Amino acid sequence: MRVVLAGATGAIGRPLTRRLRAAGHAVVGLTRHADGVRWLREVGAEGIVADVLDRDALLRALAGVRADAVIHEGTALRKTPTRHRDLYPTDRLRTRGTANLLAAARGVGARRFVTQSFLYVYGFVDHGERALTEDEPFSPGGGDRFDVHAAAMQANERHVLDAAGLDGVALRYGFFYGPESGTYGLLDLAARRRMPAPRRGTMMSAVHVDDAAAATVAALEQGRAGHAYNVADDHPLSWTEYLDAFAEAAGAPRPWRVPNAAFLVSPYLGALMTRASIRLVTAKAKRELDWAPAYPSARDGLAAVAQTWRGERH
Ligand SMILES: NC(=O)c1ccc[n+]([C@@H]2O[C@H](COP(=O)([O-])OP(=O)(O)OC[C@H]3O[C@@H](n4cnc5c(N)ncnc54)[C@H](OP(=O)(O)O)[C@@H]3O)[C@@H](O)[C@H]2O)c1
Questions:
Q1: Over the stretch 259-284, which tens digit does the pLDDT of each residue have?
Q2: What's the number of CA atoms in the CB half-sphere (13 Å) around residue 267?
Q3: Dist. CA 74 → ligand 1 center (Å)
Q4: Which residues contact 125 (CB under 8 A, 6 or more apart)?
Q5: 245 falls within a domain
Q6: What distance in angstroms lies between residue 119's CA and the mean position of ligand 1's atoms?
Q7: What is the Cα–Cα distance from 207 to 204, expressed in whole angstroms?
Q8: Residue identifier of the C-alpha nearest atom 47 of ligand 1
């Protein structure tokens, strides 16, 4: 297939571009920067400069392009979001950005559209001991500042899965980690013993970006139109265990414990690590996409990432 990929230069976009190329697909990557175009050419893709939030410019940039599918992996998380306002640009990419990319998909003649979603589409709330399948209704939310982010994720999915004339698929990824700057930054913090962990972190599902990329290629090729898939590893961890795994991978002592309430100084990330609790069931992706994570637990995956992190440090 010929695929227009928004977010081609990001944490998931880079491994995804490589995997799409390896699977024989042609990639037209969107980026706002000349550097991004250069990287895309180096890996055998085409690069087009466009801002997906500028609808007219996006449609102009894609004039004359024909493609079979569009994949939306655009986020704006280069800086780790700690406050709610750090998420607003990403919320916009999931609302206005998705609408613009759907218009672009129609313009290039695409039949399929795959979009990035996230485990918190189920709501930034405590789902208790239950592991969630794709049939789980979205939570109405806690009536707090998280609701706007969940609403943006839900709107993104609704627009894509209900899009007329397009086969839409949504991928509800777990938390990403991988050989990328965000994960390396946390390994650095752990190694310098500057990473605290909440005493009783809530549960979450994670996924190595390479595994997420593999699931995305499978969803492009065989995802069922109008369906969402949970994409995560097999062993949900508490945030406390997850941060311990970073320290272990970095060869550092266990992070010191901090009362949950102290994490609330970070109103987005800290609150998320101590209040929302979600574990994903991935049986549907395994069954229908014929996919399984190469790293069944973040403990194994982080150990592998730490090897490349060490290589880059020395
Ligand atoms: N599920 C998850 O846990 C999840 C999901 C996403 C990201 N993250 C994390 O967030 C951190 C940063 O992610 P990242 O490195 O992918 O960076 P990012 O800043 O979130 O950028 C992601 C991609 O979106 C593109 N993009 C952003 N705004 C755009 C716009 N207006 N128009 C067109 N393209 C746009 C960027 O392209 P250009 O900059 O080239 O224009 C880039 O390719 C990483 O640690 C990652 O693991 C986690």
A1: 999 999 999 999 899 999 999 999 99
A2: 8
A3: 5
A4: 139, 141, 142, 275, 276, 277
A5: no
A6: 17
A7: 10
A8: 176
Nearest CA to ligand 1 atom 46: 11
> Does residue 257 form part of some domain?
no
CB 22 within 8 A of CB 2: no
Q: How far apart are CA 177 and CA 107, in angstroms?
A: 34
Residue 13 CA to ligand 1 center (angstroms) comes to: 8
Which residue, judged by its Cα, is nearest atom 44 of ligand 1?
182
Global confidence as pTM: 0.98
d(CA 111, CA 32): 25
Mean pLDDT of the chain, nearest integer: 97
Ligand 1: residue of 30, 73, 77 to mutate (most ligand atoms within 8 A of CB) is 77
Which ligand 1 atom sits closest to the C-alpha of 173? 1
How confident is the model over 116-131, as a mean pLDDT? 96
- 199: CA distance to ligand 1 center in Å? 30
**pLDDT confidence of residue 118:** 98
Structural domain harbouring 74: 2-180+206-232
Q: Does residue 269 form part of some domain?
A: no
Report yes or no on 129 lying in a domain. yes
Q: Give the pLDDT mean for 104-122.
A: 98
**Number of domains forming the structure of the chain:** 1
192-204 pLDDT, tens digit per residue, is 999 999 999 999 9
The CATH number covering residue 172 comes to: 3.40.50.720
Q: Tell me the pLDDT band of 80, cut-offs 50, 70 and 90.
A: confident
Joined tokens for residue 109: 């003649």
Query: Which residues line ligand 1 at a C-beta cut-off of 6 Å?
Result: 6-11, 13, 30-33, 36, 51-53, 74-78, 93, 118, 173, 175-176, 180, 182
